[in-house]
Design goal:
This protein has 304 residues and is an alpha/beta fold. It has helices at residues 17-26, 36-44, 46-58, 81-100, 126-147, 163-172, 184-190, 203-207, 222-225, 254-261, 276-279, 283-303; strands at residues 3-5, 31-34, 62-67, 105-108, 150-154, 178-183, 229-234, 270-272. It has a single domain, classed as Divalent-metal-dependent TIM barrel enzymes (TIM Barrel, Alpha-Beta Barrel). The protein is globular. The structure holds zinc ion.
């Protein structure tokens, strides 16, 4: 299985776009992620997307996975009626754009980000947020089915996307066009560890919990979500913050993660969400890490 790689080209001057894509091609990249900023840009500006696709094709690269933004006009549990209307329009447009270029998975967050400290919005109860999520999925999953794109929700680290909440959701909605995106870094942040205490979690994580008490999961519940797992975001950390490090640089047990992913029968892709530009890693180093992961995963899948 080939990795889809993260590259936010909107952070880079447009005249450098082809240079970066050519380097990815030469490094052996084939599949790329359409990141949230670029997908939002594509929703606003058709011309931008067609010129981007021409550059991708020139370099023999394709978008395989996409990520939608997570602001109020995109989050699945957004509560303001006007914002919800906009959110449905945004998803419809994003799914049609993704389908037009053969993207297989589109990952979204349940939400909660807009309840952070400093925000004017007080969140409704977990139960009400769950109902908002379910109401959104009732409308958006049929759209995903129409476009034959798999809508995925990922585990972040907010009250509304604990493993228990996600499990309830996947048990309720059964569709080949709906599934789980397992984010390794986010899962590691919520994993219990004898040396971790809730006050050690990074500020932006605890901000999401200002109306609930931040807690760690009591155990790793990934096994229960394996049957719904369609894709994954691979990146590492120390368990305290969302650092998006290269796999192997943090505390995640990668052999264990890959072994489990080998059992995910619906898995269609693996995604590199390492912040390699921020850390200053060469593409060769990034590719070597992901080639090793691909090899191990293929071995696991072949022995199942
Ligand atoms: Zn992620």
């Amino acid at each position: 299985m080939q990795t889809s790689h993260y590259l936010n080209l909107d952070m880079i001057p447009e005249y450098c776009r082809r240079f970066h894509l050519a380097n990815w091609q030469e490094a052996g990249g084939r599949k790329m992620i359409l990141p949230y900023a670029m997908l939002e840009h594509a929703v606003r500006d058709e011309k931008y997307f067609s010129s981007l696709m021409k550059d991708m094709e020139r370099c023999n690269l394709r978008f395989y996975d996409a990520h939608v933004p997570w602001g109020e006009e995109w989050a699945l549990n957004t509560c303001d009626p006007e914002k919800r209307k906009k959110m449905f329009d945004n998803f419809q447009c994003a799914l049609s754009i993704c389908a037009s270029v053969g993207i297989k998975t589109v990952t979204a967050h349940v939400g909660d980000n807009f309840f952070r400290a400093g925000s004017e919005i007080k969140p409704p109860s977990i139960k009400e947020r769950r109902n908002l999520l379910y109401n959104s999925l009732e409308k958006i999953i049929p759209e995903a089915e129409k476009y034959q794109v798999i809508l995925c929700i990922e585990n972040v680290f907010s009250p509304a996307d604990s493993f228990d909440e996600l499990l309830l959701c996947f048990q309720r909605f059964s569709s080949p066009c709906f599934g789980f995106c397992y984010d390794t870094g986010h899962a590691n942040i919520r994993m219990p560890d004898p040396v971790k205490t809730p006050d050690m979690a990074a500020d932006y994580i605890r901000e999401l919990w200002r109306f609930d008490e931040w807690y760690y999961e009591d155990r790793d519940k990934f096994d229960e979500l394996l049957e719904y797992t369609v894709t994954c975001h691979l990146h590492d950390n120390d368990g305290l913050g969302d650092w998006h490090m290269l796999p192997g640089k943090g505390k995640i047990d990668w052999d264990k993660v890959i072994k489990k992913l080998g059992h995910a029968k619906r898995l269609v892709s693996i995604q590199n969400e390492c912040a390699y530009i921020y850390y200053g890693y060469s593409l060769r180093r990034v590719m070597n890490t992901f080639f090793r992961i691909e090899e191990k995963l293929d071995r696991e899948r072949n022995t199942q």
